[in-house]
Structure formats: structure tokens, C-alpha cells
Amino acid sequence: MAQHKAANTAFPLASIDAVRAVWQRNPNVFWLVGAADAPNPALFVYLPLTAVGASKLVSGEFDGRAPDPALIATPGEPPAALYFWLTLAEHRMRKGLPGLARCIADASPEPVPFFSRAMTDASRTISQGMGFIQAREAYPNAPEWLLVILPEGKPDRRTQPRLDVRMVRSFEDMATIVAIRSATYLAEQFCLYSEEFDGNDFCATQFIGYVDGDPAGCIRMRYFGDFVKLERLAVRREYRHTRLAFRLVREAALLARRKGFRLAYGHAREDLVPFWRMFGGREMEGRPAFRFADINYREMTIDLGAMRNDAIRLGVDPLVSIRPEGDWDRAGPLELSNLRPSREQLIRKHTRTIRGNMND
């Protein structure tokens, strides 16, 4: 940082004042990596982001040129996400990767998303080798340039749980939904049964999330003219350290897009607005907070992106629309029935005909 010229060359997107502001907020994020006797060690700087900072990063509102210090976690404060911000490594980037891996492991006591941005072809190749993917694969409205390593893919001392999400298709599944929401909304928010089970459960698509096979969370989605409404997202307390909530929202959004919807709408508890921002959620302008069941909420929308080429619409194969919901790429039971012998043949085979005159 003492060499202004070198810093400006290596940090084209951040001024010395911006780097100094980050240093004053949290000096622990600056790492020199290299051999003890190396004359020019590599410099890595990552930003431990607060929940608000992480939400602004994935929604494209984060200013990387001059990060707001309030969005950076202080020393000892657990971050909600990490952002690989600056590097001064020249041709020593690959040699510094082992040290960088240790920096990442020490940066957060719990697995969190690790974001980055590749500024050159070389750094893009290295990022891919480290396991970074396009952030849009997990956060639909993230900037195109944003890369991420999700916690499930990050080397960690613990075994990552297996997360699965399946659509509700039976009364047994609905009983599971009732159990999960009773253990969360009824038990923790003390809402009335009539408030939680409002009569809309059988006119909605619902998903159950599993952690290592155990039903752990759920979400409900209802359909209106030009938008879907995401609601009743619940994860059991003992599984809230996982990314199941993200998986549930993502699966619901993917189904909505396949059905041709481009906009999602929801009511976010005021304390959970940053969570929904991580999916690109935006508070509706000019709409005040409102309240029900003793809790304050905000109206939010999520842009689901352009219409998918394979969205279900008029003109598709007529058999597609009668396949099981969400399983439109495989032949359904009514198509498979065409492979059976015809019913007319079965009736003839199993019907005995009495011949002769009834007057005989």
C-alpha cells in the first residue's frame, strides 16, 4: 500500500482511499502470501460481508470501487459471505493459491458463499479451476460477472449434508407439510391454526426440502395472472445452518419459469428482507410496510428473467400438458398407456358371450 503507483496499476477499480477505508474497518482481511524469504509476496484482500452487504453484492448494488465500510464485518464478527476483492500477485497467482485457501478457511467459522470476479482470462481460468461457478446458477438476478463457490462445494472440515427438494404429490406429502409448518410457524410465531392453514394449500404447488433424507423445510407457490406468489417458506430450526432455504426458493423459481412466469411476488418479514434480496428481491416502491399476525411485512418482487424457450405454452405437444407437474420432459402415464393392449381387445378377451335364441 505504500507504493501508490503499483497499487493503482494492480487495483484499477479501487482507489488508495477505498483500500485505506477497508483497512481501517478490518485490517485482518489483508494477507501477504509467499515464502518467508520471498522478496515480493502476493497480496490478497477479501471482504467479509454482513448480511446486508451480501444481499447488495448479489443484487448488483455493491460498489466494488469504494465499498461502504458498514457492509464489511468487523474483526470477530461472523460474515454472511466472503468477496475476493483485490489481488497484487502479478505472475505469482498460482503459487499463492495454497495460502489463499488457508485465508478462506480462517475467514469464517461457518461455511458461507465465497464470491469473486475474474478481471482477466488468466484469473478466469484459475477461478474455474478453484471451483467457481456463475453466481446466476444460484442467484438468478446476480450480475453476469459475479462468480461464487457455494458452501456445499467448499472444502470444509465437516461433511456437508445432502439436500434434496421434491414436489408434493400425495396426501402423505401434505401431512409432512403440516408437520413442518406446525413446528415452525405455530410453535415459534404462536400464530393461530386458522392463520397458518388458510385454505390455500390445495390450490398451490408445494415443495418439501430434505436434509440427509429427513423432511426439513417447505415452500408454497400460487399462481396469478402474470406472477407467482412465493409463500410459507419454512425450515425447521435444527436445519437452518444449511442452505435448504435457498434450494427451496430456487426450485420454486425454476418451476415458475418453466411454466412461463417472469415475475415472483412475496411478503417478506422485515427482518428477512436481506435474505430475499440475495435472490434479486426488491421492495416495491411506494408500498408501505403492512402488518398481520403481529408481524411487520414488506412487499417484494423478484424478476425471474426472460421467458424460457422451453416454457409450457399453447402450441406444445398436447401430451406435454398432461404429464405430471414439473416432469414435462418424460413420457407420462397416459402416454405409456398407449403401449398396452387396447381396452377393446381386453374386453373381448375377458367377456364370455352367450350365443343362441333367448326363446329357445
CATH architecture of the largest domain: 3-Layer(aba) Sandwich
CATH C-level label of the largest domain = Alpha Beta
Shape: elongated
Radius of gyration: 27 Å
- Category by helix and strand content: alpha+beta
Number of strands: 14
Termini separation comes to 115 Å
Task: Write the H/E string, N to C.
Answer: HHEEHEHEHEEEHHEEEHEHEEEHH
Q: What is the mean pLDDT?
A: 81
Structural domain tally: 2
Indicate the percent of residues in helices: 25-40%
CATH topology of the largest domain: Aminopeptidase
- In percent, how much strand structure appears in the residues? 15-25%
* Low-pLDDT windows of residues: 1-11, 91-98, 153-158
Count of discrete alpha- or pi-helical segments spanning 4 or more residues: 11
User: What kind of sheet is the major sheet?
Assistant: 8 strands, mixed
Describe, in plain words, how this protein is organized in 3D.
- This protein has 360 residues and is an alpha+beta fold.
- The chain folds into two domains: 4-153, Aminopeptidase (3-Layer(aba) Sandwich); 163-303, Gcn5-related N-acetyltransferase (GNAT) (Aminopeptidase).
- The chain is 29% helix and 22% strand.
- It is built from eleven helices and 14 strands.
- It has helices spanning 4-10, 16-25, 51-58, 93-107, 121-130, 171-189, 193-196, 244-258, 273-277, 333-336, 343-350; strands at residues 30-33, 42-49, 81-88, 114-117, 133-134, 146-149, 163-167, 205-211, 214-223, 228-235, 263-269, 282-283, 290-292, 295-303.
- Strands 7, 8, 9, 10, 11, 12, 13 and 14 form an eight-stranded mixed sheet that branches. Strands 1-2-3-4-6-5 form a six-stranded mixed sheet.
- It is elongated.
